[in-house]
Amino acid sequence: KKLRQWSTWANQVIPDLIDPYLELLRSTCNLAQMCQAAPVPCACGGRGGTKALNVLCVDYNSEFELSVCACRPAALQLLRRGFFPCAPIAPSLAVDIRMLEFVKTLFVRMPPNATAWCDALESFLDGRGYKLDTRDSMRRRFSNALLWYGSLVNATKSVVTTYLEESRVTL
């Protein structure tokens, strides 16, 4: 299962999210001015099967239901709203991209400790009335989102660098 999930992330989801991620960075002035995203329109007519996903979003106050299908995957819809999913197909948790960017920056300056970060986050959310299903589920899901968000950032940088290098060579 983990190998299939890795393959889905690396070969399907991350490549499909590069252009929408660049658009999000452009439209939000590098995530400084987040705004309410418009829903992603369905272009397949639900041929791939439409299902409802209830996704808890780590940004202090969001939880919403997504209607996903072949042309509107959960990862794309969440990214357009400024969140990154913990799983490629049917995520149960999504994290605010600005929070992931903060944690990524924090972990560059101190030893990475997702367990301590998630314990603090769980305690913080618990104090505000959010109850999580199981102990340690936040750590696994948050760590997965952080890992694959880093992969998206790196893939995006690689695409932009390749584009710039190709443009430079043709000049």
Automatic annotation (TrEMBL):
Top-rank taxon: Eukaryota
All residue ranges annotated as the CxC1-like cysteine cluster associated with KDZ transposases domain in the record: 41-128
InterPro entries hit by this protein: CxC1 (IPR041320)
Name by which UniProt lists this protein: CxC1-like cysteine cluster associated with KDZ transposases domain-containing protein
Species this chain originates from: Plicaturopsis crispa FD-325 SS-3
